[in-house]
## 1
Amino acid sequence: MSAPPPIPARESPPPSAQSTLAKLWWAARNPPADPRVSFAGKTVLVTGANTGLGFQAAVKYAALHASRVLLAVRCADKGEAAKADIVRLARCSADTVRVLPVDLSSFESVQAFVPALRRETDHLDVVLLNAGMANPTFVRSPAGYEMALQVNVLSTALMAVLLLPLLRAAPAPAHLTFVNSIAHADVQPDWCRGSLLQSCNDEAAWNVQRSYGMVKLLAMAVMHALARTAPADRLIVNACCPYMCKTDLGRNWGLAAKIPMAAFQAVFARTAEQGARTLVSATALGPESHGRFWHHDILYPLGDLAKDDEFMQKCWSEVLHVITTVQPDLHDHLGNKA
């Protein structure tokens, strides 16, 4: 008898022409399949790994026999507490899990993180870029960028490029997966006339709902660009969406918003564990997923703007300008292909 597939095919396809509430209702009752693939012998890095989706993904990697699970977290103490829980839940050795502090609100912290990581490992088999945030108001990072733009796009892009040599050093193929959102498909062209990056950073025009999708669309441009840096038989680059999950992504919101959101999520959201299934399975997909978007256990169509190669290249050029200003040698990491 043949072994079951590591990522079972979805029997019930997600709805495509229904309302958002209908889609959320369906998703909460049709969670992704739990991946059964082995990560034995692999070194895995997860950002934002001390809570929510990242924590649950780290538990799964450890339970699926990853040789090393590296937790990139903002607070070392919280990371160590998460490590203890991961070791307990996954029933793995404490030596399997390592905590590495990094603050994605700071370019300097990302730059310091990579040399520290190199002291831990000479390669990475899997990188899951999960760290993210969503604020109810416009807040600037120390570098002067709107905070979600800084964390979800600019610092994440800088980290991804700096990690390319470690990924390329892995036995082929390595995996680089960006946690994104189907909200990228909601962005309309008139929301970002001129520059998407500048629109995300425009305090006067900032809108909490629009901003979330715009930041995710800009992050999709990063994924597209890095997918061009290596053939899929060496490095598989993709993005995924866990859909609405019960996490602390809205931790910076006030109580008046948290209470109704918790009630809404109780009915319409997946659990963090269920959402993490999408993240982990995305990092186990084959070359067919290179440059593509994993959602509801299928390779899902991109939004219209994300399918516009010229627009995506323009967005990437804007991001690249920012991060090469921070670190001019990034073109060496990219191999001048992006």
## 2
Amino acid sequence: MLYVVKRKTLILSLLICLAIIALALAGCSNQETGSTKAPAADAYKVGVVLDISGKASSLGIPERDTVQMIANKINREGGINGHPLELVILDTKSNETEAALAARKLIQEGVLAILGASTSGSTMAIIDTVQNAEIPLVSCAASVKIVEPLNERRWVFKTAQSDSLVAAKIVDYLKLKNLTKVAFVSVNNAYGDSGREEFEKAASAGGITVTVWEKFEQDDTIMTSQLTNVKKQNPQAVIAWAIPPAASSLTENYRQMDIKAPLIHSHGIGNQTFIDLAGPAAEGVIFPIGKLVVADSLPESDPQKDILINYVSDYRETYGPPDPFGGYAWDALHLVINAIEKAGPDKAKIRDELEKTSGFVGVTGVFNMSPADHNGLAIEDLVLVEIRDGKWQISKD
């Protein structure tokens, strides 16, 4: 009997000791948990629709690389108000139908805003979708029709210089050089059509006569028929509105036909691909563009200088030489990040903050948006550039 009592006492003592040890371990565990970081906050998800493959890939690839570079940096530095930034990147394949499908998919994913697309046509294809869904869109494309009329574009913004500004810059140059009789050739798509429309307005207002209008397709490599018509008119200058590779092919054809008039392109040629494809034919081409391509030549007093030099350095370290198309994406994502920082994860408030953007110094220019202007750039954000020795240089004119 005594043995049984002692045995029960021993078992009880062991159980008490085990309980004390368990409590002690639990206390240590609680202390360790209290010293660790809180669980990560939910990610802020932003959609990206870009022309990464297909005819406009020379635009979409640097844009994709740029937004990924920015997201990595933002997340290394703690995210947006403590929330990781998650990008959902989809490829339009340079196809307008694919662009529309991508926008719908991103909306279903619950993104707070959408960046893109790379081209005017792809962007125009998704505008109705984002308008109906009431989700902010910041395009990297040029057509002024992306943001006008404003009463139909309440949710749409863009970072590339509008073709209306580029047309005005070209007309200023023509007037300066007393070139009053010109020809106009353009790619047969939304970018070319909008450029033609805006140039026609600017030329008319500036006293410039357009003697011939010609079009070509984005996949054309031979434009001799159009250029023969141009040459017959003996213009004082020829204005071209396209992107590579068609813009490069046009330039080669132009030189082969020995047309003497200066060739002035739009800002659609502002990447290394144009020079690489056009080769020696690119020599002497003039075009308006943002300051990125001549960042090293800018005076220290230029408000964009530091931003441009830093972007060039960061991009070059991973991907090689940057171009303005990547710059459009840099601006688009930073504008959205700034808006989310102020508005939080509320799409309507993000839209409102985008519209309030004032004095934002970006890669493309200094942005001042308003209810009357969803691009926010001025003609002063453009410089006239000439290709000399295979490099971009500020024009001496």
## 3
Amino acid sequence: MKGQIVTSNKKRLLSGKVVSDKMDKSIVVSIERSKKHPVTNKIIRTHKKYKVHDEKSEAKCGDIVEVYAGRPLSKQKFMYLHKIVNKNALNK
């Protein structure tokens, strides 16, 4: 899974993996990115966790989802769920 960036309808879509779904109407998504170190020129993988608004509570832990940034809903939650790309087979 890579941090793929797709531009559609002027919204920047980020893909990531759901790491927590224990909150009501919210999920935590880990987005992984690769960047080049400025001194050693090695490729470094970094990740960041975002709290994402999931209105229908349909995403489960382990799913691959697409999210986008929007209007802030709370202090830490400003991302919205766009769609579920791949359901986790273990959830079935």
## 4
Amino acid sequence: MFFKFILGLLICLIRVDSLCEKELLRSIEWVGGPFDFETSAMKSLLTSSDKYINKNIISSRGQIFEDSAILAFPRFKCGNPATLVKLSLKWKGCTPLLEPFPCWSSQEINNCKSLQSVVDVFIDPLGVCWVLDAGIINTLESSVRTCAPKVVAFNLKTGRQLKSLDPTGLVEKTSRLQYLIVEYTDGGEPYVFVVDASTASILVFDVIHDKSMRVVLPKEAATGCSQKDVLYAAVVQKEDGFNYLLFTYLCGLRMFAIRTDILRSGSLSGNVVDLGLKPGKIVILGTDFGSAIFFRYEGKDEVFRWDSNDHFKKNKFISVYKSKPGFLVSQVMPDIKRQKMRVLESNFPDFLQGTVGCGAVQQINIIGETKS
């Protein structure tokens, strides 16, 4: 009798756990920036002083950590009170609340110890959140440099700041820092790669030994560009046992790769691999932390997957997701805990044109799942 009771209890617990996991796989949607303000008075004060303008807020990059999404909200326009937030995948109710990460005081504009405008996020295998702070706000209005750019690392469990990297000696006035990648050597030492589109270079940071350098990419990377635009980059793990950094300009004609161990040495001469001609302007959206790259074509709503162990040919590109009309994916994010791939998407074209009404619609969805 007791055994039957225990068995029944275990079955109930399994069913409840299964239902909870199913809840975590649903579509998540919010409009603008529904922040978790400390008090209603705080929200009123920020609103009345134009420091909180809901229609001016949108997320463009993010990563999944356990049961949360860590999202970058670049300060494209005035009125964004928080540029790095945490969103719980367990939220219940109509609208999820955005919690500034690690706290409200870390979001203060003109305080160079705080975050100014986070443009990219990377979560490493140790649960460390690395963020790229461009130091420039209101980039879609009248750009203002409030602080020098920086890379900051936070412990995701505690919110404690672990490291701050200063690229000042590696950048120029025209530099445009766009993407951030972190990898660990076989010996467990972290290296940070930051993409500088304007100077066609990769900033390499040896975190443990506090060293850094700027590695200039070959001029062929910009072939086809009348003006350097977005420089996309991603790291993949290939079956030969090496990690490769793939890179391409949006305007560029070709895709390139370089082994990361060679990149860390600072010598690219003769080691950059031309993967081939692109069939169109490609927007790299992320990886599966393995050999697969996810991308879409500029302005197009269909997401493709390419296994970097295969030849870079159009017939090797597999369609895996399609946004609804008016939406574009800005990031593909591995959800390691649930062995799923998620997308961050929004009506970003409307946001650019200023036609979002009360706010931009943003969603986190699962690749391969029916939206609910």
